[in-house]
Write a structure and sequence with these properties.
- There is one protein chain.
- The protein is an alpha+beta fold.
- It folds into two domains: 87 residues, no CATH class; 70 residues.
- The protein is built from five helices and six strands.
- The strands form two sheets. Strands 1-3-2 form a three-stranded antiparallel sheet.
- A hairpin with a 3-residue loop joins strand 5 and strand 6.
- Helix 3 packs antiparallel against helix 5.
- The longest helix has 34 residues.
- The protein starts with a strand and ends with a helix.
- This is DUF2812 domain-containing protein.
- InterPro entries: DUF2812.
- Keywords: Membrane, Transmembrane, Transmembrane helix.
Length: 171
């Protein structure tokens, strides 16, 4: 039986998402598909998985083969950017990939670069609202929505900054 659960995670919260998916699997709900905040699970209390999420734009066959060779199965992706992998909890010798400090920093840098590009495009695209401001209700609505998105982006960038600071302190 398929179970659907709606939950949103910011890009800077990959670890929380992995933990949640792993906890759901321990409860017998195994992640199978993701669509715009909706997680799809299949029920099976006889097995448990550990999940890993990786941010990789333009993932190629070598990337997926690397995970397969290490014992991870690709489950799904979100926007072809976030890739979800799982391995059986009882699998011995299978370790989380890209978990060393340098790989984690590299992943955060990829995310920062990608989301900064989107953020700049968002700001540029809103110049028209400001340039043609007439005080219409729809302009206020549009500006309000954009303001909320900007606040979410700023929160995400602060989270990334704090994580990068953490890794600098570790050295």
């Amino acid at each position: 039986m398929t179970v659907k659960k709606f939950k949103l995670f910011l890009a800077s919260s990959i670890e929380k998402e992995e933990q949640w998916l792993t906890e759901m699997s321990q409860k017998g709900l195994h992640f199978t598909r993701y669509r715009f905040g909706m997680y799809f699970f299949e029920e099976n209390s006889n097995i448990s998985y550990i999940f890993q999420t990786d941010f990789r734009p333009k993932a190629d066959d070598d990337y997926f083969q690397f995970y397969r060779d290490a014992g991870w199965k690709h489950v799904d992706n979100a926007l072809n950017l976030f890739h979800y992998f799982r391995t059986e909890k009882d699998c011995t010798g299978v370790k989380k990939l890209y978990s060393d400090e340098e790989s984690i920093k590299d992943a955060y840098n990829r995310m920062i670069t990608y989301y900064m590009s989107l953020f700049i495009l968002l700001i540029i695209s809103q110049i028209g609202i400001v340039a043609t401001w007439e005080g219409y209700v729809m302009q206020y609505v549009s500006l309000s929505i954009v303001s909320i998105v900007v606040v979410l982006y700023l929160y995400m960038f602060l989270s990334f900054r704090n994580k990068m600071k953490f890794f600098r302190k570790e050295r």
